[in-house]
Design goal:
The protein has 2 domains: about 140 residues, no CATH class; about 325 residues, Alpha-Beta Complex (paralog of FGE (formylglycine-generating enzyme)). Helix content is about 10%, strand content about 30%. The chain is mainly beta. It is globular, with a radius of gyration of 22 Å. The strands form 9 sheets. Strands 1, 4, 5, 6, 7, 9, 18 and 26 form an 8-stranded mixed sheet that branches. It is built from 6 helices and 26 strands.
Length: about 500
């Protein structure tokens, strides 16, 4: 991940703009940002910029994309606001060979390849239409304004049926009972309709862990709960330390104080003072985050938390389950033992050369903590060597635990899939009621999937169907979240 900043010329005679292009995902770059085409009657303008990233693709099944959103503020203020873009895709101007899809509410837009392709992409002078009047803003002559463009790499997971659970022995795995009470039939998800949770034939249920249920009580999972059947975009990488530092810099001082934590343990490198926080290893996955932190980031970026059903779809894809499979679709695994590269840069190469997962490195000198996002993927690596999911999502297994919305209790089942709107409370919290922001770090409706660097055993925690910690773990201190990460999703428009 790199963060790039540029200055643009004055916007006609109406405003003097300080314009910033900020790349907030692994290896994605925003540059040459300008604001142009102001229409004072309609109170709209275009934000123009160049956008590029490496190892992009589009095939018959899915593609990667950039989720682009914009922040702005008067130069004399530190109160960044979320820019409302047009919710009509045709209002935006894509670059050659690219496409733009708008979203309801105008929180941001998805940018991706317009046709089949594999390789690096560079989109020049593309334009997103900004409905600045919707933000309650009116430009006057001589107005000085900062505009900041952010981009996050995402992966499109298409609509379709898939399976929960497997025929293996993963702890707490989902299954579909029959009249005999067997526990090995995977559960087929075929729609977003309500589904029944319980031990009865044809329902969704889960095996026990240490004598306790991982899914009870019985009940109905509402249609509004995202089940993974409908298409969604998922962050290609776990949130990085560079992304989180830039998020802190775009808050108010009070909000940033609530969301910032200083430590040098477990390879955490964010430091500084507001509004100039930075990460010494910006590409490294970000740990030491409590639930309130990740909810605030999701709100700010216009994303939402992922459900544990979506997690299995993101990992397994549409393939039939393989017993005890890892997220890259096999039972083969090669543990990271060390890294080479410039110390502190985050730009490192895995050792051994066939390593595909960061787990159990607590005893490795210099590597006690998360590694660079996307470290195992190259332009020529296979899915297994890259440690990639069926769709090309990286590090769903290992590195840092994935926080997900659980279906194992009523708190989690209340989740409705609302997206963030870009604005936090004065106290720096998310505003979405079903994300449990009022619980702060407790997160009673969440669980964990995918394991992390500090778990010595690959099985069962790294398996895509393992639910050992899928229900309601509460962590009240950031010092206890050294192995916890996060990635956001957004339902496809």
């Amino acid at each position: 991940m790199r963060s790039m900043t540029g200055r643009a010329a004055a916007w006609a005679a109406a405003a003097v703009l300080g314009v910033t292009g900020l790349a907030t995902a692994n290896n994605i770059r925003v540059s040459n940002v300008t604001v142009t085409g102001m229409d004072t009657a309609a109170r709209t303008a275009f934000v123009r910029f160049d956008l590029s990233w490496d190892n992009a693709w589009r095939d018959a099944e899915n593609w990667d994309a950039a989720w682009v959103f914009i922040k702005f503020k008067p130069q004399a203020s530190n109160d960044w606001q979320h820019a409302t873009l047009s919710s009509v895709s045709g209002d935006h101007v894509p670059a050659a060979n690219s496409a733009v899809t708008a979203v309801p509410g105008g929180t941001g837009a998805f940018v991706y390849r317009s046709g089949g392709y594999t390789g690096n992409v560079a989109y020049a002078r593309m334009k997103l239409k900004w409905d600045y009047g919707t933000n309650g803003y009116a430009f006057a002559y001589g107005t000085q304004l900062d505009v900041s463009v952010h981009a996050i790499e995402m992966v499109y997971v298409p609509q379709g049926s898939f399976y929960l659970g497997s025929t293996g022995t993963e702890t707490g795995r989902f299954y579909q009972p029959d009249e005999t009470g067997q526990t090995t039939n995977a559960y087929p998800v075929t729609s977003e309709a309500a589904l029944e949770i319980g031990p009865g034939a044809g329902k969704l249920w889960g095996t026990s862990s240490s004598g306790s249920s991982t899914i009870g009580p019985e009940g109905i999972l509402d249609p509004a709960f995202p089940k993974g059947f409908k298409a969604f975009y998922c962050m290609k990488y776990e949130i990085t330390q560079g992304q989180y530092a830039e998020f802190l810099n775009k808050l108010t001082s009070g909000q940033a104080s609530a969301r910032y934590y200083y430590t040098t343990t477990y390879r955490y490198t964010i430091s500084g003072t507001y509004p100039s926080f930075s990460a010494a290893a910006p590409d490294r996955a970000c740990n030491h985050l409590i639930w309130a932190d990740v909810c605030a980031y999701a709100e700010w970026a216009g994303l939402r938390p992922m459900t544990e059903l979506e997690y299995e779809k993101a990992g397994r894809g549409t393939k039939a389950p393989l017993s005890n499979e890892y997220v890259w679709g096999t039972i083969g695994i090669a543990r990271l033992t060390n890294e080479t590269g410039v110390a502190g840069s985050g730009l490192s190469t895995p050792l051994p050369a066939n390593a595909n997962c960061c787990y159990g490195n607590m005893s490795l000198m210099g590597a006690v903590g998360p590694t660079r996002a996307g470290i195992f993927a190259t332009a020529s690596s296979t899915r297994e060597l890259a440690g990639a999911s069926y769709w090309g999502i990286m590090e769903l297994g290992g590195n840092l635990w994935e926080r997900v919305i659980t279906v194992g209790n009523t708190d989690g089942r209340a989740f409705t899939g609302n997206h963030g709107k870009g604005t936090l409370t004065v106290a720096g919290e998310a505003t979405e009621a079903t994300w449990f922001p009022s619980m702060g770090s407790l997160g009673k409706g969440i669980g964990f999937r995918g394991s992390s660097f500090n778990d010595n055993n690959a099985f069962p925690f790294l398996c895509v169907s393992d639910r050992s910690y899928a229900v309601g773990a509460a962590f009240t201190a950031r010092s206890a979240t050294h192995s916890h990460g996060w990635r956001g999703v957004r339902t496809a428009p």
